[in-house]
């Protein structure tokens, strides 16, 4: 493997040429070849582990994005890594595309079978395999979700804090480099994956940090783990993930504060972080989103830019954190600062943020929603939010804003009528402008949702053509026939 990677770097000059034959494959496999592959799949996973049903294929051909359903030719349900490997070898023999599938909660069309092929649904591989409480790590199979892991950990005093909102599979979260509301303190999946077991397109199985390895840090060679974190199924199938765990905080305090402007809210965020407050969550809702949440949940928050905050620690440290934060928000014009420690009141304070998606949808009953996803340096956040709100108003679009302001990541929840071609086109053009606005401010076109189908051209603009060609070279080394989730990312 190392020699192959080295040879791919030596071949860098040819990689700068137009796309090669492998990338342009049409995957026009014969029905007879597919039938022989299906028979082989059944010999590995049994009849119950292979599905040709239209409903099952359509279920596995879409995620939560606005991209249309692209069902695979067949869905397989492996029960262990040995089955995944055997099934991948059959796909490789018959040159069938492979599309990994976790829970289908992605937001960028990452599971659509653009070229047909075989969906590997990993939900039956749902075991928590190795828990090392004293080392603060755990190894899970790809069918284990975020909530099911934390339920398993309930009596251990440990938890896994990366929270993208949906109850996504943990290997799926690794595949998209997910993050969410707790990232400002605990980091994203990139910082919390210690090792991955991967099945490559030819059925080979390897471990990105070495079999059984789980050190808290390493300087041994290239960072293959982070190569696969964020690869969105284009390099291999993640069949195990070893993850960092954290101690459950002794106490938790939540708070809400309203501001006269976006600038005031962001200034408060920056100053809280500069003061060294180890804040766990700091979320932003704009005036439109707060208004939608008030109507949806019969709340009465002032309809102005608002921060939702959460603090973790000992009772004494929390008192200090809350005091410092309240002083900072007051100096920036913050008002209606309300905080709570008991779980019921905290849940009530956070209800607006938790229900933001449904509140946005309620603004236009019968419509659909699409969540944008950009991230910029904190200092640029006020500018991009103000310009984005002006863009929304100018183009008569509904897009309340919510974001993880502590790390500069925010979303417009675009509510649109999918049957109105003009509105669909205006939303598409708006999202392109938003992404490029983020790029012009030294940001990224995706903070946590991934590239998938819709942001491939933006990835090239963000990284530059040479970086993209290097990525193509890595993919060609690991997946020379371009079988792994073709048409995504690159």
Explain what the structure shows.
The protein is an alpha+beta fold. The chain is built from 19 helices and 19 strands. The strands form 4 sheets. Strands 12, 13, 14, 15, 16, 17, 18 and 19 form an 8-stranded antiparallel sheet that branches. Strand 8 (193-199) and strand 9 form a beta hairpin. The chain starts with a helix and ends in a 12-residue tail after the last helix. Mean pLDDT is 92; it is low at 1-26.
Short recap of the structure:
With 490 residues, the chain is an alpha+beta fold.
What is the number of strand segments?
Answer: 19
Oligomer: single chain
How much of the residues is beta strand, in percent? 15-25%
Number of continuous helical runs:
19
Can you summarize the main beta sheet?
8 strands, antiparallel
The average pLDDT is 92
Radius of gyration: 23 Å
List the main descriptive attributes of the protein structure presented here.
490 residues; alpha+beta; five-stranded antiparallel sheet; 19 helices; 19 strands; disordered N terminus
Describe the SSE topology.
Blueprint: H1 2-10, H2 12-15, H3 31-45, E1 50-51, H4 54-59, E2 74-76, H5 81-94, E3 98-101, E4 118-121, E5 128-132, E6 137-140, H6 146-152, E7 158-159, H7 170-176, H8 183-186, H9 189-192, E8 193-199, E9 205-207, H10 224-228, E10 237-244, E11 246-247, E12 251-258, H11 262-274, E13 279-285, H12 287-297, E14 306-313, H13 315-331, E15 335-340, H14 343-354, H15 356-362, E16 368-371, E17 374-375, H16 381-394, E18 401-404, E19 409-416, H17 421-440, H18 456-463, H19 465-478
Parallel strand pairs: 2-4, 3-4
Antiparallel strand pairs: 1-2, 5-6, 6-10, 7-11, 8-9, 8-10, 12-14, 12-15, 13-14, 13-18, 16-19, 17-19, 18-19
Helix pairs in contact: 1-19, 3-5, 11-13, 12-15, 16-17, 18-19
């Amino acid at each position: 493997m190392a020699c192959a990677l080295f040879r791919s770097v030596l071949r860098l000059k040819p990689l700068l040429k137009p796309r090669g034959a492998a990338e342009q494959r049409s995957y026009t496999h014969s029905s007879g070849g597919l039938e022989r592959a299906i028979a082989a799949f059944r010999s590995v996973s049994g009849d119950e582990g292979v599905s040709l049903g239209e409903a099952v294929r359509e279920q596995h051909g879409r995620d939560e994005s606005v991209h249309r359903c692209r069902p695979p030719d067949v869905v397989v349900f492996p029960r262990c890594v040995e089955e995944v490997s055997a099934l991948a070898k059959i796909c490789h023999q018959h040159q069938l595309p492979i599309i990994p599938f976790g829970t289908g909660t992605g937001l960028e069309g990452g599971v659509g079978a653009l070229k047909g092929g075989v969906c590997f649904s990993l939900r039956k591989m749902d075991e928590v395999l190795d828990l090392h409480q004293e080392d603060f790590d755990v190894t899970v199979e790809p069918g284990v979700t975020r909530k099911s892991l934390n339920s398993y950990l309930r009596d251990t005093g440990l938890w896994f804090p990366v929270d993208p909102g949906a109850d996504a599979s943990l290997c799926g979260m690794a595949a998209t480099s997910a993050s969410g509301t707790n990232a400002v303190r605990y980091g994203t999946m990139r910082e919390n994956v210690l090792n991955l077991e991967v099945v490559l397109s030819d059925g080979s199985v390897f471990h990105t940090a070495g079999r059984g390895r789980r050190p808290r840090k390493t300087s041994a060679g290239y960072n293959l783990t982070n190569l696969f974190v964020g690869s969105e199924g284009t390099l291999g199938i993640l069949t195990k993930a070893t993850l960092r765990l954290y101690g459950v905080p002794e106490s938790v305090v939540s708070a809400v504060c309203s501001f006269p402007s976006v600038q005031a809210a962001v200034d408060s965020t920056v100053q809280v972080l500069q003061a060294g407050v180890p804040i766990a969550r700091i979320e932003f809702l704009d005036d439109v989103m707060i208004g939608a949440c008030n109507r949806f949940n019969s709340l009465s928050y002032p309809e102005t830019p608002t921060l939702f905050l959460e603090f973790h620690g000992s009772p004494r440290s929390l008192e200090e954190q809350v005091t410092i934060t309240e002083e900072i928000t007051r100096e920036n014009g913050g008002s209606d600062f309300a905080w709570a420690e008991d779980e019921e009141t905290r849940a009530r304070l956070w209800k607006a943020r938790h229900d933001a998606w449904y509140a946005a949808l309620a603004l236009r009953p019968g419509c659909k929603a699409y969540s944008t996803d950009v991230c910029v340096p904190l200092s640029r956040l006020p500018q991009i939010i103000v310009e984005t709100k002006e863009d929304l108003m100018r183009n008569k679009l509904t897009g309340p804003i919510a974001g993880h302001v502590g790390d500069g990541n925010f979303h417009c929840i675009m509510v649109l009528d999918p049957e109105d071609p003009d509105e669909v086109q205006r939303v598409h053009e708006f999202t392109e402008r938003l992404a490029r606005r983020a790029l012009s401010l030294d940001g990224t076109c995706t903070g946590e949702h991934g590239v998938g189908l819709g942001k491939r051209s933006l990835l090239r603009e963000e990284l530059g053509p040479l970086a993209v060609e290097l990525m193509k070279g890595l993919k060609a080394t690991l997946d020379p026939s371009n079988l792994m989730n073709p048409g995504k990312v690159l």
